[in-house]
Every structure is written in C-alpha cells, then in structure tokens.
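Why does residue order matter? Because the sequence determines the fold. Keep that principle in mind as you read this record.
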Amino acid sequence: MNNGYVVDRVKAYFDLIRPFTLLAPIIVSSSIMIASFFYNQISGQLLNFLYTTILPASFALAILNGASNTLNQITDVPTDRISKPYRPIPMGKVSLIEAKITAVTLYLIAISISIFINQMFFLFMLLIMVFTVTYSLPPRVKDILFLNQIWIGLPRGFLGILASWSVFGNSLEPLPVMIGSIAMLFLIGGSITKDIIDCEADKITNTKTMINIYGNKKAALMVFPFLFFPFAYIPIFIHCGILQPYLWLLTFLAIPGFFIIYLIMRDNKKTRILENTSSWTLMYITYFVFASSFSILTVIESIG
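Structure:
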C-alpha cells in the first residue's frame, strides 16, 4: 500500500463528510456556548470548560453534521451522478457499504459524546438526528417542496442553537429561543442557495425545490423576507422587551440579505465556490457573523 493510495482514500472520506460545512456547527455552537457561559455567570475559568465541555460539545455537533452529509450523499447518488460526478461515491472512491458504515459510525460517535455533556444536550442531539435521517431516507422530506427547507432551518438553526445554549443554561429562556428563531428563519430562506447547482438533476430525480419549480429570480424574491426581516425586526423585539438593547447591532445583518438575493438571481451551476454557489457561501458567512457577533456582544454585556 503506497502513500498515494492512503492519501487518496483519506481525501475521499474527507470529501464524503464535506469538512467546510462542518465549520458552521463548530463556529456557531462554540459562539453560542461561550455566550451562554458568560450570560449565565458560570463560576470557574472559561479555559477549563473550553477543553472539558465546549470543544467536545461542538465536536459532537460537527460530527453529527458530517454524518448527515454522508447519509445525504448515500441517498443522493442518482442526483450526484448528474450534477456532482466528482464526489467520492459516484467516482467509486468510496463504496456505498463503506459510506453507510461511515454514516452510522459518525452518528454513534456524535450521540455518544453528547451523553457526557448533559441530558438536555443529549435530547437535542437525538432530535436533530431524527431531522437529518428523515430528510434523507425514503420517504424523504428532501423531495417535498417547502418542507425540505424547514427540515434544514429548524435543526441547523433553532435546535442547534438551543442545544448549544443548553450546555450552560436554560435553552427555553426567551433569549436563546429568539436567537434560535432568527437563525431558523434565515436558514429556511437561505437553504435554497444549495439547490442552484442541483437544479436540473433535481428535476430528473423528482426532487422539488423552489429553484427548479419557480426559477432563481422568483424563488429569490419569495425567500427575501426570511433573509431580511428576522434581522430588521430586532429593534422591534428590543422595544417589546423580547431582546435586550445591547443586541441592536445585529440589525445590520439584514443588509447581506440583499446581496444574497442578488447572487441567487445571478448564480448558476457553473458559479462554484467551495463546491457550491457564491450565494451559498455568503449565506454561510452571514450565519457565522451572526453567531459570533451575538456571542461577542453578550460576553461584553455580561462582563460589563
């Protein structure tokens, strides 16, 4: 067995779990956990909890996302053969059996780690797993128009943030519920960006998405409220006492919504950045900024 073969195999498995998308649960969950730590005035040094709690919990969420990505590639082989033939399963670099073993192993690792965090985190992880499995396995939600977007936004936005907050605090408090709701609505709208490259393949495999049913322009206009108003309404939430005044700066994240919409209208299957479109990349970056900005503002307010 030569080194080249080993490198190719490792790269194939990396491509299977799609490591760039794992940045979302790591960055977002770590940010929310740190915010929860300071907001709830947990006694002790943050550095101690970083290694014993925050990193393992973030790692569990990332592994769960990797398991979801792998399962999705297993069930998306007909689509990938058309739109993404370079992926490891269509290319024959990873067999279906190997991919299934990988998915099950990653799910088991993620759930096993979550048991050692706390009971609420474990329950949220199980619930997120249910959404990822029902999204991909027949009769799969991924093929159902509109519901497929909710099945992405709810676990990755709402449940993911509540799970992260539960590591140090009560996830049913108004603050995490509202922040999770904002994230969920944003991702419900932004999730159509991933369907642009697969538009023609999805039509052939009978997967109904807003992109292949309504076209880029109309779909973009339909999801614009989800990308803009969750942030634009933050001053109203503050005025109503749902959010605290220190979070008003998050209102400016409504601005990228205009650029995401513009890119959705312009993007096509040839405009690829990190295996997807520029609108998808900007959507993810905006989500990263939202979580990290919320964390920074909450830490500053808590210390002050």
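The radius of gyration is 19 Å.
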